[in-house]
Write a structure and sequence with these properties.
- There is one protein chain.
- Helices cover about 30% and strands about 25% of the residues.
- α1 crosses α2.
- By secondary structure, it is of the alpha+beta class.
- β10 and β11 form a beta hairpin.
- The chain is built from 4 helices and 11 strands; from the N terminus they run ββαββαβββββαββα.
- The strands form 5 sheets. It has a 3-stranded antiparallel sheet with strand order 6-10-11. Strands 1-2 form a two-stranded antiparallel sheet. The chain has a two-stranded antiparallel sheet with strand order 3-4.
- It binds zinc ion.
- Zinc ion binds next to α1.
Length: about 160
């Protein structure tokens, strides 16, 4: 099948590529779109939203978790922007819908989600800790960060440095 650009689109598959010094992983490519057009499409979304939410510091991707501070059931524009941020963090292997081996908050409603469908786990403990500090510190719940299917890792007090 031909892509809209006139090139052979190639089969549908998951692809990875680099853009702006970042690795975009497990990107779903369909059989109507060539890899170059997929890259362009994702790069445009990254330029519009991604640069608000991630930056590179000392060679590591850092996330502005404070953007996730407001409870996501607010105005539609805010929700859709946050959903974009979430998807971009998934592309960059910072968040994952796979829980096993990744880090999640308990209680569960503190985790990042897109509407009623996908719920996300943190792939790096450092991000979970920062999210805990920036987003969950003032929550009344006594939360913990769990490495899924392992023992409890960090308590709220531990993360906030109260003990
Ligand atoms: Zn194309």
């Amino acid at each position: 099948m031909l892509c809209k650009c006139g090139q052979e689109a190639g089969e549908s598959q998951f692809v990875s590529f680099e853009y702006a010094g970042l690795k975009f992983s497990h990107m779903a490519k369909d059989s109507n779109t060539c890899l170059e057009c997929l890259k362009k499409e994702k790069a445009a979304i990254f330029e519009k939203y991604g640069r608000d939410v991630v930056f590179i510091k000392d060679g590591r991707i850092k996330v502005k978790w404070e953007l996730f501070k407001e409870y996501p059931f607010g105005d539609e524009a805010e929700i859709s922007k946050r959903n974009r941020y979430t998807r971009i963090l998934e592309w960059l292997s910072i968040l994952s819908t796979r829980r096993s081996g990744n880090f999640v908050f308990e209680p569960d409603h503190l985790n990042i989600r897109i509407a009623y469908t996908a719920k996300y786990a943190f792939m790096r403990l450092a991000d979970a800790i920062e999210y805990g500090r920036l987003v969950c510190a003032n929550r009344p719940e006594n939360w913990v960060i769990n490495l899924v299917f392992e023992k409890t890792l960090l308590s709220k007090e531990g993360v906030l440095g109260l003990t």
